[in-house]
């Protein structure tokens, strides 16, 4: 099949770890690569945000990236992109027609809107993965939510127009149901992890030297909803334990959330045990996760959460807030522990017990690795995604099945 993945702000070529580049970038890159390895012709369409970018880039992973001109060729916050989407959709339509795309898969609500418009013009089947829902964001972030006011209505409209909504976890199916979307319009296909790179085997990649008996690692874009402050607060109850916070702009621009964490650590007396290590390249991430006794994921909410999968693939137990995708990926008492969100005391108790029990940590780490191999490798996830594409194409009238050409 000729597959188009549309990801307006999250380029698979971006450096991840800063405020607007995280799991979606990793997901789109890995999904595109895995689909290409399964024999599909895959193009990722993403907004041109740098004048030096070539219009077309061939990646080593076997797919192409087409930069879509829409607005200034400069980085913009993702919440500023909505007014540019009509221009994005028009340019996308031309690209899809030129490539003779069979199926278009929009990632995030704005891409899904643009994909929908292009697919209407070209009579193509469309699939959508939201990655995050406006209703959930608004519930948790209230007036701090800077999404355009149209987001929730547009999300519902594109979900209804899609041939299929790919939800990444069962909690998202429930959330889509709350919005009014029938469960039979959705298929759950989780995100994946590269289990050949994220492995329990040590390698020579250098990691920061340990300064305390126990090491806890937490990873993500430095935004309040990732819950790093919850982990810093929990640290006060965990003697002889250091916390590594991974993620950041890598020196490009201010880091208000990391500044806030340092202030909190000063107030709670844990400043000498908090290490904000900043942005870490993809290649160095497995070694860093492996260096942890436990990886903590304590977001207020989490549409899916790649970091728990990455830790599990490395054989490291995960202590996670019982929200979103982690309700599916982390099995309580087996691959890790689930704790209530935004509850530093509960997190501290759960972590303290786990850190005190190395045998249990080893058992959980091994069970996490096993679970990843059974459910979350990219070949499995890409295969399930391709099955969705095949199903939506097969439901179209015979004359409109271009992928059966020849
Ligand atoms: N990540 C990274 N370097 C960093 C910080 C994060 O490579 O410095 C990666 C992390 O390993 C994961 C992704 O960014 O693959 C974050 O995805 P997740 O789903 O956990 O969070 P999101 O960013 O989607 O909210």
UniProtKB/TrEMBL annotation:
Domain annotation Glycosyltransferase subfamily 4-like N-terminal: ranges: 22-197
InterPro entries: Glyco_trans_1 (IPR001296), Glyco_trans_4-like_N (IPR028098), Glycosyltransferase_grp1 (IPR050194)
A Pfam short name: Glyco_transf_4
Signal peptide: none
Keyword terms: Glycosyltransferase, Transferase
Nucleotide-binding as UniProt keyword: no
Gene Ontology molecular functions: glycosyltransferase activity
GO BP terms, alphabetized: carbohydrate derivative biosynthetic process
Domain Glycosyl transferase family: 210-371
Stored PANTHER family: SULFOQUINOVOSYL TRANSFERASE SQD2 (PTHR45947)
Protein name: Glycosyltransferase involved in cell wall bisynthesis
Source species: Friedmanniella luteola
């Amino acid at each position: 099949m000729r597959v188009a993945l549309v990801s307006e702000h999250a380029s698979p070529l971006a450096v991840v770890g800063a405020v607007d580049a995280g799991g979606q970038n990793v997901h789109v890159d890995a999904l595109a690569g895995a689909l290409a390895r399964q024999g599909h012709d895959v193009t990722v369409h993403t907004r041109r945000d740098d004048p030096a970018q070539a219009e077309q880039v061939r990646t080593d992973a076997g797919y192409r990236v087409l930069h879509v001109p829409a607005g200034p060729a400069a980085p913009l916050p993702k919440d500023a992109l909505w007014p540019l989407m009509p221009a994005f959709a028009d340019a996308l339509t031309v690209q899809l027609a030129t490539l003779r795309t069979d199926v278009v898969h929009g990632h995030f609500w704005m891409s899904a809107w643009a994909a929908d418009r292009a697919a209407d013009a070209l009579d193509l089947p469309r699939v959508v993965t939201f990655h995050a829902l406006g209703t959930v964001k608004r519930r948790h972030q209230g007036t701090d939510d800077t999404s355009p006011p149209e987001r929730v209505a547009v999300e519902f409209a594109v979900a209804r127009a899609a041939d299929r909504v790919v939800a990444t976890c069962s909690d998202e199916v429930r959330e889509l149901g709350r919005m009014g979307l029938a469960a039979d319009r959705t298929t759950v296909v989780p995100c994946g992890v590269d289990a050949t790179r994220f492995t329990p085997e040590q390698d020579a990649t250098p990691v920061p030297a340990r300064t305390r008996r126990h090491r806890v690692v937490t990873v993500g874009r430095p935004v309040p909803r990732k819950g790093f402050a919850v982990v810093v607060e929990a640290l006060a109850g965990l003697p002889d334990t250091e916390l590594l916070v991974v993620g950041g702009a890598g020196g490009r621009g201010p880091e208000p959330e990391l500044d806030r964490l340092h202030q909190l650590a000063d107030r709670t007396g844990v400043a000498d045990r908090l290490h904000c290590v900043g942005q870490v390249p993809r290649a160095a991430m497995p070694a860093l996760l492996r260096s942890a006794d436990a990886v903590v994921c304590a977001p207020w909410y989490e549409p899916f959460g790649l970091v728990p999968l990455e830790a599990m693939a490395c054989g490291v137990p995960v202590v996670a807030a019982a929200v979103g995708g982690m309700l599916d990926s982390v099995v309580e008492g087996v691959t890790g522990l689930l704790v209530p969100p935004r509850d530093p005391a509960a997190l501290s108790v759960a972590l303290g017990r786990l850190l005190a029990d190395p045998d249990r940590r080893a058992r959980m780490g091994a069970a996490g690795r096993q679970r990843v191999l059974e459910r979350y490798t990219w070949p499995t996830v890409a295969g399930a995604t391709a099955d969705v594409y095949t199903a939506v194409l097969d439901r179209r009238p015979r004359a409109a099945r271009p992928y059966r050409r020849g």
